[in-house]
Amino acid sequence: MQPKPIWFGHCRTGGRFYLKADEILPGINILGAGADGLAAVLAVACNDSGLRTLVLDFTGRMAHKLYGSFDVKSLGYFLYDSQLMEERASLHAELAASAYTMSLNLNFEQEGFLNSAIQYIGLEQGLASPASLSDRLTATGEFRGHTADELKGKLGALRSLNLAGETGVVKEMMAHSCVASFGEAESHQAAEVAVMLLLAKVLAIGASGGELPDVMIVNEANRVFSNLPLTRHTNRLLTNLLTAEMSRVFVAEVGYGLDHHILDTSPVRILSSALSNEVSGGKSSVGGLYHPQHIGRAGSVLSTLLLTPNMFVLQDSARGYEEVFIPRIVAQPEPKPVPEPQPKKSDAGLVKRILETFASYDNATRGSVVGFLSGEDPAEEVQKTIDKLQADACLIVIGKDVKTDSPLQTFRLTEKGYSLLRSLR
Known about the structure:
This protein is of the alpha/beta class and 425 residues long. It contains 17 helices and 13 strands. The chain has helices at residues 35-48, 61-66, 75-83, 89-104, 108-123, 130-139, 146-156, 169-174, 188-207, 221-224, 236-243, 260-265, 273-280, 348-360, 366-373, 379-391, 415-424; strands spanning 6-11, 16-19, 28-31, 53-57, 71-74, 178-181, 215-218, 247-252, 268-272, 312-316, 321-327, 395-398, 410-413. A hairpin with a 4-residue loop joins β1 and β2 (16-19). α3 crosses α9, α14 (348-360) crosses α17 and α15 (366-373) crosses α16. The radius of gyration is 24 Å and the shape is elongated.
């Protein structure tokens, strides 16, 4: 079934302004003041036309505008599943390593360290959380030197990322129009990492045969995909994202700082009135250092019309098309807080059995303990509890008595873990 035309607003000269689904497929950049509000209008319009739309809301502002029209999920709901290596673990590990590299501005050597560590974790379908990666880098003797120590320090700053959440929820979010809100993250850096990890999960699901959303909207894209001077040897996540079979909409309230690869690969661009007037007057260029001004075939500036504050201009460089429009008004319900799911209380009995098992057997691995205890408790709950204990520093990965080429993670109890076990007896 073909989606209906996307009713985006009203033309300057009168009549409704529509976009076709194939016109937004290559991607859209929405730049300038008011971009978040326009992105919310686009999200509603895409959903009304029958397109499954996934919104990655960095700040949480769009979640309040779309609450009632979209299914809104907060960070604590999907973060755990975003870090779980399940779909095509080898590819997912590469994408997750690239996600950390982009958000933490790591160098190529540090990306290699992370890729190696996450590949080990992926073999057991484990969790590529900052705590797990830090333990893995510390336990093995292959990651040494100043570069590794710097990487461990950056991962240590991310331990605020809560491991609460469910499994299998990212695929469910992709099946219908949904907003993933990152507004509850404790810092901008934590939010940037969380956005990138969710993108890596979405792309891994798509690569394993899952159905990608029809449209993905990322707001505050200049924070997530910043135009950094560091030249990277590779960027697997960005390459996979820009070649994925879905429409990509990158939103930035400012006209600079967005990665030039995104600017150069999106033929459709929507500028706010203020930004368009600046470009028309020759005062600035969209994209800053890497992008020239919009120059027509004859060498003249395309937009010479001064726009009023309620107007936007759409420019399609592939078709040589330009249209000034006023966004449609979308009815919004009363603002409500984004619901935060309450974490489930830990099963003290399961925690005790896990700690006793790791304390009783030498070289016990995550997989062996999950298999051993899954007769009494669901394997999913055992895995989540082990990950939570590791994040709380009750369990730690060790390399003693394990072959250096072993792909398995061996755990032991820390002093905090032994104290917890004594309190449960």
